[in-house]
Specification:
The chain contains no helices and 27 strands. It is mainly β. It is globular and about 55 Å long.
C-alpha cells in the first residue's frame, strides 16, 4: 500500500505536513536528528468537518498556505498556517477530491476529483477552469518549474498529457490536452535479462531545472519495481525523451520520489522504497538536445502527437460551462 500524503514546507525544512484519517498533521521535526519520535516532537493537528481522510496536500510557494483535499469532500481547503484558519473553496459537482498541486509560481492550483473531472483554480479570485475526460480519472499530475505547464496522466492510459497556461487569467492557455509521451510497455534486454518497462503512471515529479521528469508506475504495472527518469524539453514543444531507470534491491518497490530543489549542476533524486530504505541518485546532464521520440521507453520511430477529447469550461456562473463538444476552448 502507498504511504499517506506528506509534504515539507518549502521554506522551513523542519515543518512537515501529513494527511491522515482525521485531518492534517503539522509535524515540527528536527532535521539534524536521524530518527524522530512523534511523541517527542511538536505537533499541531488541523481539522475541518467532513474533510477526512486527507488524500493529498500541497504548499503554496511562499510556505504560508497549505491546500488539502479529501475523497469525502467536494471542496478543497486552504489553510492559513500562521493564523491557523481554514477556508473552504466552493466548487460544483464532480465528487470528492483525490489530487491537488499548487503551481510553483503560486498563480494556480490543480485539483482532481475521484471521477473524470479535474479543475485548475487561479488563486487571485479562486475561480476555476473545469476539464473532463470521459474515459477515466486523473491519476498523477505535476507542474513545470515555471508553473506554466501541467503534466497529467489518466487511469488506464499509459501516456502523459500536458496543458499550457499563459498569464494569470483563466482561459489563457491550451484549447486541448496534448500527448507528450507514450509509455506503453516495451521489452528491453539488460545484462542478458529481458525486462518490460512501461504502463500506467502512479506519480511523477519534475526537477527544478525543468530537464528531468521522474515517475513511478502503478502497482499492477510490469514496471512497478522501478523509477523511470525522462529527459524533458519545453521548447519549441513539450517532449519527454529517453532517460534511464532506477531499480532498488530485490523485492523493493518505490513508494515516494522527490527532487532536491537546490542542485547547482544536474539533479538529485530521492526515492523511498517499500523496505524503508531511502536512496539518493545524482543525475548529471548537459542541456537538452534535438532528438525526439513519441515513446521515451522505446527505440526511435516516427514522431507524432495526439489530442485527446478533454472537455474544458469555466466555473462559476460568470463563465459559461460548455460540455459534450470535443476540444473545447477555455
Amino acid at each position: 500500500s502507498y504511504p499517506p500524503p506528506l509534504s515539507a514546507s518549502p521554506h522551513c525544512n523542519s515543518l512537515l505536513a501529513v494527511g491522515t484519517s482525521t485531518g492534517v498533521l503539522l509535524w515540527n521535526v528536527d532535521p539534524t536528528v536521524a530518527t524522530t519520535r512523534l511523541l517527542t516532537s511538536w505537533v499541531r493537528v488541523e481539522t475541518s468537518p467532513n474533510h477526512t481522510p486527507v488524500s493529498a496536500l500541497s504548499w503554496s510557494p511562499q510556505g504560508n498556505f497549505l491546500v488539502s483535499v479529501s475523497p469525502s469532500d467536494t471542496n478543497l481547503i486552504t489553510w492559513d498556517i500562521p493564523m491557523g484558519v481554514a477556508t473552504r473553496v466552493k466548487r460544483a459537482k464532480g465528487g470528492g477530491l483525490a489530487l491537488v498541486s499548487w503551481s510553483p509560481d503560486g498563480q494556480r492550483v490543480f485539483a482532481a476529483s475521484v471521477s473524470a473531472v479535474f479543475r485548475v483554480w487561479e488563486t487571485k479570485s479562486w475561480t476555476c477552469e473545469k476539464w473532463t475526460h470521459p474515459s477515466g480519472r486523473c491519476k498523477a499530475a505535476c507542474w513545470s518549474p515555471a508553473g506554466d505547464i501541467l503534466l497529467f496522466t489518466l487511469e488506464g492510459d499509459p501516456s502523459i498529457y500536458y496543458l499550457s497556461f499563459h498569464g494569470s487569467e483563466l482561459g489563457a492557455g491550451s484549447l486541448a490536452a496534448i500527448k507528450c509521451a507514450d509509455l506503453s510497455p516495451c521489452t528491453h534486454m539488460v545484462g542478458g535479462e529481458e525486462i518490460v518497462v512501461g504502463g500506467d503512471v502512479q506519480s511523477m515529479v519534475w526537477d527544478h531545472s525543468g530537464e528531468r521528469l521522474a515517475l513511478i508506475f502503478a502497482s499492477d504495472s510490469p514496471s512497478a519495481d522501478m523509477v523511470a527518469v525522462l529527459r524533458a524539453r519545453t521548447s519549441p514543444m513539450v517532449e519527454m525523451l529517453p532517460g534511464g531507470f532506477i531499480r532498488g534491491h530485490e523485492g523493493e518497490v518505490p513508494l515516494l520520489i522527490g527532487f532536491y530543489d537546490n542542485c547547482v549542476e544536474g539533479a538529485l533524486l530521492a526515492t523511498a522504497w517499500s523496505s524503508g530504505r531511502l536512496s539518493f541518485t545524482p543525475l548529471h546532464f548537459q542541456p537538452s538536445h534535438p532528438p525526439s521520440f513519441p515513446n521515451p521507453l522505446a527505440p526511435p520511430h516516427t514522431i507524432h502527437s495526439a489530442n485527446i477529447p478533454l472537455y474544458s469550461g469555466h466555473t462559476p456562473t460568470h463563465h459559461s460551462l460548455r460540455q459534450h463538444s470535443p476540444l473545447l476552448g477555455s
